[in-house]
Amino acid sequence: MLKVAIAGFRHSHIIELVDKTRQNPDLELVGCAESDPAVRDEMNSKSINIEWLDPQEMLAKLPCDIVGLGDVYARRGALAIAALKAGKHVIADKPLCTSLEELQEIRQLAAEKNLCVGLMLPLWSSSNAAAARKVVRSGKIGEVQSVVFTGQHPLNYGTRPAWYFQAGQHGGTINDIAPHGIDLVEFVTGLKFESITAARCWNDHFPEVAHFKNGAQFMAVLSNGAGVMADVSYFACHFGLPGYWRFSIWGTKGWIEFNCATPGVKFSCKESTAITDIFPEASGTDYLKEFLKEIKGEKPEWFSTQHILDLTEFTLKCQQQADAI
Prior knowledge:
Layout: E1 2-7, H1 14-23, E2 27-33, H2 37-45, H3 55-61, E3 66-69, H4 73-85, E4 89-92, H5 100-113, E5 117-119, H6 127-137, E6 144-151, H7 173-189, E7 193-202, E8 215-222, E9 227-231, E10 244-251, E11 254-259, E12 265-269, E13 276-278, H8 287-295, H9 305-323
Parallel strand pairs: 1-2, 1-3, 3-4, 4-5, 6-9
Antiparallel strand pairs: 6-10, 7-8, 8-9, 10-11, 11-12, 12-13
């Protein structure tokens, strides 16, 4: 049985990893750490016992095999490095870290110590993504030429954790949101993100926190030369809109479009004006199953340490280019 410890609960996404750990007979939750008293009280009210007040101290003293990271974004890189130095596998809520320098050390340590690094990215294993992948990989839309995706989120200022809006803690909106979309596009198309054409982050109608750049867009090129346009801004009025993770993919023979909330993938080809709904099929796996498979020495279906580190590097470079404007 693999022992799991959770370092930081500053984003609610990490609760999903706690739940998955408790539900998996091959995993045991052995420790949780959080430095913020209010967050500790909140977790205790949700039956998550916080035994450690300092995540770094827990990593140094608690025997475990896997460390899950849910702390403030800007602290995750240091925690990942500490965990890897201590010989522990790492899985994080995205983002993994907020600087290329941190990522380089994470990459080096994972290779030297033969440790696995994962991210909590669920979109690629959704039923619609599995159906879209099958359509694209079958050649029905031909060679991929263009991809457009939106992952607009609501800002929820006043209800999101306050650290989001503290200088130096967030790390950028592209790095925050885009990993989900980048991962899914690579999964569906089988193509890698190769270069960045343009990237921009900016503050738009958000005077309450002038330094926070709630707008985020970028253009990129896939490994076959296809273009990608993406909008991952904090402009949505609420969750649940069709544009929340909507993907459109054009190819030399056809087109598909889907989002991650409405069941079905729309497909059309050049031989017909009809639009067909292709209904989802279960993927049968998810980020945690693939992560554990790699730890056991088995080849993951999609997720791997190499993929996660490459995806994180591309996202950080995209954020860096936007920050340079």
